[in-house]
Amino acid sequence: MGSISLTIDGRTVEVEEGKTVLQAAREAGITIPTICDHKDLNPYGSCRMCVVEIDGVRGYPTSCTTPAVQGMQVTTTSERLTTLRNRTLELMFSGHPNSCLVCPHREACEKYRPKATKAARSTRCGFCANREECDLRTMALKGGSRDLYLPTLYASYNLERDDPFMDRDYNLCVLCGRCSRICEKIHGKPAISIINRGKWARIGTAFHKSHVHSGCTFCGACIDICPTGTLTDRFARWQGKPEAEVPSTCIICSEGCSVIAQSKGGQSMANIMTGFNPEASLCALGRFGYAQIVNSSQRLLHPLVREGEDHIPSDWEGAIQAAIEGLQVCVGATALVISATTTREDRFLYTQLAEHLQATLLILPAEAANDDPQIREMVGAVQQGKIRGLLTNGDFLSADLLRAANFSLVIDCLPSTTTSLASIVLPAAVLSETGGTFRTAVGTVKQMAASSRAPGDARPEWQILCDLGQALGSAAFDFSRIEAVTPLVSDDPAPAAIDGDPRQNVRELIPRFRGHLLADIVPALAAFGLPATEVAAVEAVTGAGFAILEKREIVPNMHFFKIRAPQVAKFAQPGQFVILMARETSERSPFTLVDWNGPEGWITVVIEEVGRSSRELASLKAGERIAHVSGPLGLPFPIEKKGTVLLGGGCYGIGAIFPLARALRQAGNRVICTIEASSAYLLFFEEEFRAVSDQLILATKDGSRGVWGGVQEVLAQVAQEETLDQFIAIGCTFMMRMVCEASRPLGIPTFVALNPIMVDGTGMCGACRVSVGDQTRFACIDGPIFDGHSVDWDELALRRSAYAREEVQALSQTVDLSALIYKPESDSCGCGRK
Amino acid sequence: MSFSTLQQQAQLEWQEFERPEQLRILIGSATCGRAAGSLEVMQAFAAELDRRKLTAATGIYEVGCLGMCYAEVLVEIRSLDGRRVLYQGVEPKHVPALVETHLLGGEPYLPLALAVMTAETGSELPAFNELPIIHPQVRIVLRNCGIIDPTRINHYLARGGYSGMAKALTLTPEQVIDEIKTSGLRGRGGAGFPTGVKWGFARNSVSDQKYVICNADEGDPGAFMDRSVLEGDPHAVLEGLLIAGFAIGASIGYVYCRAEYPLAIERLQGAIAQMHAHGFLGDNILGSGFGFAIKIKKGAGAFVCGEETSLMQSIEGKRGMPRSRPPFPAVSGLFGKPTNINNVETLAAVSAIMEKGAAWYAGYGTEKSRGTKTFALAGKITRTGLIEVPMGISLRTIIEDIGGGVLGGKPFKAVQTGGPSGGCIPAQFIDLPVDYERLAEVGSIMGSGGMIVIDEESCMVDMARYFLTFTENESCGKCVPCRMGTQHLLRILTDITEGRGTLEQLEIMRKIGDTMKSMSLCGLGQTAANPVLTTLKYYEDEYRAHIVDHKCPAGACRALIRFDINANKCTGCQACVRACPVEAISGVKKKPQRIDQDRCIRCGSCRQVCKFSAVQVS
């Protein structure tokens, strides 16, 4: 191909023939804004942001779809183009919650809330997991003045969680089509495309099938190419932007796919494809399962040495000593049963060890179970006492075999029957926690990168083996780095290829990792038909419990519950809360009482769907039962006649201030209520508040309704007009902190309802400890309402996020399994007509 | 069999059909006729003839549509004396009288008689061609509709059909393209691009395979020109498609027809089979060496699939969604091959032009807009129908002469052309000559031919809202300006019609409309704001009345109006009481009635039934 020259913004640009105007501009260092364009995708032209003016061409062609032509005169910036782009951007953002751009508190918010809050649907910036990486936001913050002031048209789609690994929130989608285009590019026949029409047009599967049934292979390319927070990796999404991305190799099966390992703070986040092309595609395990195995909460953390019936945690020195004592007794009568899911270096060292111990060495394929033929052949030898010592690095040995042996040593990363019966258990660092090399089924040797830290005291196997070898007195184990072992490994055979191709079909994923059932480690994998160890199902609450009389989602993520709880209703007072448990085994979660009726025996609460427990509650329907309702808890707020009282509520706090407002008004106060939300569509209880307040002021962070801003802006406004005798604010920690800072200089007595982590709610556990003034108080029995000006907000924020990682891990294990059953929707064929 | 032999055979069949001393009943049974009950009428005739033992002697034919929607069901009866009379509004109950009086008696059945089909001196009935709805028309595309039996290729052949094809096959493709260029024919799908020039592009693309496509995805609400032609004269379209294929060098033609047109598809399938039987499809047609095949592809009824790039995606089995041009279809179209797309009306004109010559066709119309154009005339007009007029005819002729003026003699307010992509032309332009340029000058478009007449009782804001409801629903969703713009326009229009509008919103609508026009990917989005922009241009005061005064001047927006009964005019007949669906009207018989405003749902039923104009809107 020859080259052509064209003029862009007065500059002569030489490009290869066949390039688009956008590519030509980029080569010349000229930036044109775009969202739908991606270097690995064909031109599409849907976002319309990259329009330019070309002499002799009518209108405003998109530079991404227009081929560069010899002699073309292109203008990329003009007043008209800026106007059109800004308006188009505004139109785009009107279909995407956009308070992250227009909220007056944006900068303070990012300072105090560096991480996004977990939530079901992203209705506002604080909930968006993609904030750090949002291409849309980056583009918008660069340019763009508002001209149209359009309200957000929130589509209110449910968060889709009907598969093991992805959260799909189409409320954030701007239909750039990157996901469906990459899916088509990688898989030929895409699992997703635009479905429906007009305002209901969205990305989806054919006939509304779940992704598990749609032909999706879970390669994750759609997630990695999505410019917004619409498509996310359920596990990685709340961890923010990865700090490191290094090329590595997935060794879960013998395919040994190349990956880019993403990590943050030494924690593995995900493996992604090395490029957006079919050759780089990954299977669900390599893409998503990997990080969940590595980060499993079940990981073995410390060496364990058996003392009679018990395993006693030990340091490495003691454990190694105990191990060699056991091994030395069994020299010449030991079998090493080793999974091929290890590095070449590990296997080399296992071979050396086997030689030193004159032991039998069995290398098991990646997908092997305890019925592997090699193990079956060994059973006789163990029973006859010819093999007395067993060393294994997975869950391959039956209880009978272990009991028959005199000594057993397990080097593994996860607990199993084998570890529970072993003489000694040594915790291994695995996968991304160890370097080394791997030979794939086709014989290629690939490099692995140590990209994450092992949990607890776990060490890489090569290191454990060197420690054992050295302690056994062999000179063949004198290595301090895995790289030193690598040159010694040669002629190692290529492992057998696995059956099927899990990159093409999720039904062909291998079921085991080092003999452990993968679905036991990553429960959601059961969705793909992977076998799991059966556990007794949790009984649904039937006869007992508290009946839900009414339940509705009033605005996205906010669920209104009316529950029959006569004893709570009888004694409830404003400011008090209840602790709910959806099921017998659920977490205890506190919720402020919104309303109650003693004679009728009911209470109401507003539950914001945030994490696992609130989601469990939110999934209950009217007519079902909540296992436990404890309350009323906490101190009632002293209702006195003060004069003029301002109450401010945000999010769940809108519900929480309601009973206070009503009681304060009944006590003769002039009550001004203000409720804030990110956008007009998130405001609720407007009518209810009008009935209990003298004045109601609405505020939205995007200015779509009422005052542009939040409670703090309203406070400033109201305080100028009249004297406030009392101010109560309930909402997120950030909001309460901000309003306290605003009210402090005004000298208004300010009260806030604190929301620390709470367990029992009766003053026993201390989880809800907060510092108010110079005192340590328990929010459950001393609060929850405190003097806002005395609260140590930094400590509260820190304590609230203490279990952030566990909370995220809990989320990744919940799947809407009911949604996995394919049910064609009777009302639509997918053509878009209802 | 040679073409002339085929023509001779066809002539014999046609002459037999036209022979005067035969009993014939022709029933207009296109979809429109069927909807009006033509099949029931046909059954009634069959039963009546059977009863009178006349079945063997009488031929009953289903013919296409004459375009006189207001007069359906239309039946032409030919008696033995050669008298041919067209009857309107025929119902099964009229059948015995028609048979008795005309078929057997030879006398026109006057209560239903509309016109005589042959020139007949001394008749008390007007001649068909002299009917005011027919007289100003020039029927080229509709030349055979309602005249021939569309299921008989010989009827088409006998009336000159396929002679255009036969002539084209003796020429070079370039000569055919020149002929079409000379005729001045422009694409009738709406954009008006010169057809011959378009063919030239596709002709010049070099490829092992090319395609021609007939766009029969007629989707504008209220437009039914293409359906009528396909149902009434399918061969005219298929012949045009074949000629187009020959001209550009395509061996395969597709007809992309919406699945909601089952009768059109049935007629097309039948016609294609007949073309095969006559050797007009397949290899070496008429010994010319040219081979051609036609496939029918049914569309699932998405408006955007009328856009050519979407249409091709749909044929390929993908989601119907437009893409940017270039590359143009003439370079890379269906399956990546050079492709030419014309709409039904264009192709039906092509076959006529090749038959009668470019000069003949160019003799009609204006300088830049040659030939004729079909329109679906609807709305508040006395004679609704499908018409074909020479370009340059004035709106006044169409509305007043052909259409018979505004329904009920009310004042003419505007005419909407071009469907959801078009605009409103206010009454001040009633003498506007209708062609591509002049319509564009006043902010509307020719479009595919929808023409909706609007009177003083139609609210322009409400009408804009109606069209936006359609485009908002039919936007494919791909590009931002169209997907979001239509939603916001509809939201604001709904606000205004329900009394929640603000004056700032007018400016915002203008800005959104301007953005959609400039920034949308395809024609759907680029034109979707037109109904808003033109009504804002000519009827801003109506918008303001909704916003500022909370009044709908036309009395159409339910949230802003109330119905009251004028006690001076009310006779107490209580017709309104019986018509009210919510029992909101009460009163003593023969005394003025009262409307309970709390109950009233403002449906307007009372106003419609009141014979004394006592129900007033305010």
Could you characterize the architecture of this molecule?
The complex is a heterodimer of chains A (834) and B (618). Chain A has 834 residues and is an alpha/beta fold. Among the domains of chain A are: 1-33 and 51-77, Roll (Ubiquitin-like (UB roll)), CATH 3.10.20; 304-488, Rossmann fold (3-Layer(aba) Sandwich); 546-632, Elongation Factor Tu (Ef-tu), domain 3 (Beta Barrel), CATH 2.40.30.10; 644-812, Rossmann fold (3-Layer(aba) Sandwich), CATH 3.40.50.80. In chain A, 25% of the residues lie in helices and 22% in strands. Chain A has 24 helices and 39 strands. In chain A, the strands form ten sheets. In chain A, strands 12, 13, 14, 15, 16, 17, 18 and 21 form an eight-stranded mixed sheet that branches. Chain A has a seven-stranded antiparallel sheet with strand order 29-24-25-28-27-26-30. In chain A, strand 35, helix 22 (733-743) and strand 36 (750-753) form a beta-alpha-beta unit. In chain A, helix 9 (316-329) crosses helix 14. The longest helix of chain A is centred in the N-terminal third of the chain and has 15 residues, at 79-93. The radius of gyration of chain A is 31 Å and the shape is globular. The two termini of chain A are 50 Å apart. Residues 817-834 of chain A have low confidence and may be disordered. Chain B is of the alpha/beta class and 618 residues long. Chain B has five domains: 17-125, Glutaredoxin; 162-361, 3-Layer(aba) Sandwich (Rossmann fold); 372-455, Ubiquitin-like (UB roll); 460-548, de novo design (two linked rop proteins) (Up-down Bundle); 562-617, Alpha-Beta Plaits, CATH 3.30.70. In chain B, the strands form five sheets. Chain B has a five-stranded mixed sheet, covered by helices on one side. A five-stranded mixed sheet of chain B has the order 11-10-14-12-13. The model of chain B has no long low-confidence stretch (mean pLDDT 93). Classes of the chains: A alpha/beta (834), B alpha/beta (618). Chain A binds chain B through residues 43-48, 51, 59-62, 65-67, 84, 87-88, 91-92, 94-95, 147-150, 153, 174-175, 177, 193-194, 196-202, 831-833, and chain B through 300-302, 304, 319, 321, 323-324, 326, 472-481, 483-488, 491, 508, 511-512, 515, 518-521.
